[in-house]
TrEMBL record:
<feature type="transmembrane region" description="Helical">
    <location>
        <begin position="89"/>
        <end position="105"/>
    </location>
</feature>
<dbReference type="GO" id="GO:0004984">
    <property type="term" value="F:olfactory receptor activity"/>
</dbReference>
<dbReference type="GO" id="GO:0005549">
    <property type="term" value="F:odorant binding"/>
</dbReference>
<keyword id="KW-0812">Transmembrane</keyword>
<keyword id="KW-1133">Transmembrane helix</keyword>
<keyword id="KW-0552">Olfaction</keyword>
<dbReference type="Pfam" id="PF02949">
    <property type="entry name" value="7tm_6"/>
</dbReference>
<feature type="transmembrane region" description="Helical">
    <location>
        <begin position="246"/>
        <end position="273"/>
    </location>
</feature>
<keyword id="KW-0807">Transducer</keyword>
<protein>
    <recommendedName>
        <fullName>Odorant receptor</fullName>
    </recommendedName>
</protein>
<dbReference type="GO" id="GO:0005886">
    <property type="term" value="C:plasma membrane"/>
</dbReference>
<feature type="transmembrane region" description="Helical">
    <location>
        <begin position="355"/>
        <end position="377"/>
    </location>
</feature>
<keyword id="KW-0675">Receptor</keyword>
<feature type="transmembrane region" description="Helical">
    <location>
        <begin position="191"/>
        <end position="209"/>
    </location>
</feature>
<keyword id="KW-0716">Sensory transduction</keyword>
<comment type="similarity">
    <text>Belongs to the insect chemoreceptor superfamily. Heteromeric odorant receptor channel (TC 1.A.69) family.</text>
</comment>
<keyword id="KW-1003">Cell membrane</keyword>
Amino acid sequence: MYDRSYTIGDDQLKNNHYQNDIQYTLQMCQWLLKLIGIWPLLNNHTSRLEQLLSIVLMITCYSSIFFIILPSGHHFFFVEKNLYMKMKMLGPVSFCVFATVKYSYLARKGAFLQRCIRQLKNDWKRVEDPSMKMLGPVSFCVFATIKYSYLALKGAFLQSCIRQLRNDWKRVQDPSHRAIMLKYAGVSRKLITVCAVFIYTGGMSYHTVAQFLSKERTRENYTVRPLAYIGYDPFFDTQSSPTYEIVFLLHCFAAMIMYSITTVAYGLAAVFVTHVCGQIQIQIARLQNLVESKDRDLFSVIVHDHAETLKILRFSKNIEDALYQICLTEIVECTINMCMLEYYCLVEWANSDLIATLTYMTLLISFTFNIFIFCYIGELLSEQCSEIGTVSYEIDWYNLPAKEAYDLILLISISQYPPKLTAGKIIELSLNTFSSVAKTSLVYLNLLQTVADW
């Protein structure tokens, strides 16, 4: 049945800190989404100039990535005959391909993600701090002019997530609840920061430092000007100036786009799931204060109507719909790249190439940590939702009127089937999945070594 009480006042502003809070929550993802042109999918208010700039940005991003994929793919399939060189090319080229897939998913799934962000913003709007009412509204960070509106009709899901996120921030009335939400928003920012540091450090080291300091550059009797991706020789001479400099800069530019896409994928998952965890902790705090509270309305909102719990479940469903394809891509990509990077580390270590070994080790740590983040937040989502049932059982429910205590059974029943974050609606993201991915990469490493030796 449609719950009218749930939708009334969703946009009511009760949190004077709303703009500052939502900026704190979404700022890091917003920066990266603007960089790759996805953020306008989350905003319905875009001018024609912004739409035009967004289309240009999209073409630029895809062109930069395909500038690597097409020549490298041609070289891999039709030119290169050495098996080791093919395997060495497979890692970075596959990363480019998966980055393109993730970029396309982000653009296509904007509608799901916007729903999640809308929920997050609504939660922030509901916070009310009486001591700050006289200070007026907090200034909001102005959106950048370059916004992405291409395929805007497909951005409905992402828009819904964002709208719900905003409404959650608007409607929280207790300062202690706002503190809980800020705590989990801080967790997501830390996860995004660590993820970005690893992926940008390892990735840009591969594109710059490793190319100039690796021993491979001095294997021939003549000086070779190195590039991260090869395969351009049939089309033009990359060793001459300024062709080399242009190609090198384009590689670095495309790398920044790809690493931003990867970081955004982890960032969106971290922001949305930690926001759900914050909402669950607020529900748990209300349940724990239920018996001592004299406010029967509080009880009816939490237990009898179950509006807040249903809202969390809807939000979790939107997150799953928005991210399940990206999660599947990440699982496949990380399994392949972890296997390849392990192999690269062994080969370069045998070649006594310290710079290349350290670069590949950094990338291996990065991919391992990033897939761990995905699996960890999936585990966190299930655990937090299950905790509602445990708390419902552990409170002094026997001190409540019998009719009202019976209503707790529904919360306990719902918690037995917590929402799950999955990869392609096939693989449940959990710490067990992370263990399986790590083991699978080692199995494929043994297979790869056997094939290479053969």
